[in-house]
Amino acid sequence: MAQIKAPELRSPYGWVHGGPFQLADFRGKLVLLDFWTLGCINCQHILPDLRRLEEEFPDTLVVIGVHSAKFSSEQQTRNIHKAILKFGIHHPVINDADLRLWEEYAVRAWPTSILIDPDGFIIGQHSGEGVYQALRPAIMKALETHSERLVTSPSPYQQAEEEGGNLRFPTKLSLGPEGSIFVADTGHHRILNILPSGQVQMAVGSGEPGFRDGNLMQAQFRDPQGLAWKTPELIVADTGNHAIRSVDFSTGQVTTLAGTGEMGYYWDDEAWNEPVLPNSPWDLALVGSEVFVANAGNHQILRLDLDGKRTTFRWAGTGHESLHNAPRQEACFSQPSGITYGGMHLYVADTEASVVRRIHLITGQVDTLLRDGGRSSYGDEEGPFDTTLLQHPVGIATQGDRVFIADTYNDKIKVADLNRERVKTLAGGFDEPNGLVVMDKHLYLTNTHMHKLIRIDLDTFRSEVVSVYA
Predict the structure, then answer these.
(1) pLDDT of residue 184
(2) Is CATH 3.40.30.10 correct for 15-149?
(3) Where are the domains of the chain?
(4) Can you give the pTM of this predicted structure?
(5) How large is the average pLDDT for residues 15-32?
(6) What fold, for 173-466?
(7) Considering 209, 386, 414, 429, which has the largest number of Cβ atoms within 10 A of its Cβ?
(8) How confident is the model over 135-150, as pLDDT tens digits?
């Protein structure tokens, strides 16, 4: 069988982190290329596998990220750099914005991992998750086969610089007690309770990433996001731990309601009436005593009854990533990352499809609120529902007949008028807005990439930064 020489790593958009490098710089080493894009949940899922391989083979394997964008916003070097900081990536990353390398390596899916031997020939390829299990045997075999030609030296990894202040990559929000707001301070692995003035009333979590129950100061989270307050308890989507946690302020204890740290996958008719493991739970919506979970990692909506078994069950979605409207158990979602409640519906920011979905709480019917142009249709258009375009929306909130949308990759907040069936831009100029919550006449939002909390007056539409201080 003819060997295939690995194409050279060239891009007019340059290197985002580390570099510039050529494959010749790594002759005598194994090279693992990771084709990824920053908004892809499966790409995020394999980062622990890549770190594990980097740590296991520090002198003989070089991991290089090839960022091949799906959305136009993801082509920008600045946004890729922010993602590198957010995800803690320290291997080199090249910007393949025009998909030249994607085509030269015949890649067809995110993520795809390609293994190159010490002589520069392709010896392995894997698409999807499970990279460690799939490629470690090939790495071990290649190390044995090429043992006489191996060059052992430290790989060119470098830690990205720290960013942020009192907040670091904040994401989701929830109303709290006595006019306060809970903020998921995701990059600091903690939750803050903040007054409208910006004063921090309390921090929950040690600030170190981990998975540990205990008191409010000692408990550990990993990249927490979705929040839902029901006195005296705050429910937390502990995204990086694939878990749902409870913060009980009456006892001062953090406990785990669902999740073991492992990702749960369930398809079609599997496990509808039994507890399931969350998979990158991204956001929460409280309806009475029920918590609905935007389970981004396997494209489903889960349900947890606080007055019942207090664990997660499947509620909507087959598990297949698609844009398909149907009764809730037959519908398909595409990385749902925002969820809220209004009237008789749940509203879902179906992020990878760049649409807003709506689920009727009684009938269970799932439909698409705004323009349904298919999973590849996105843009920045406002007006009638059937012509509106979004780009990777992540946050959503309701107030009466209005649905507020964090149009994340367009750096805007848009509002959908359910009566007039029209969408308009409320405010813009943000940097990946994410979580939204309405308090009285104000809309609060996290401006994630600027590490800020923003308040918009819904009468005057003026926005201001809420300075967070201890």
Answers:
(1) 98
(2) yes
(3) 15-149, 173-466
(4) 0.96
(5) 95
(6) Neuraminidase (2.120.10)
(7) 414
(8) 999 999 999 999 988 8
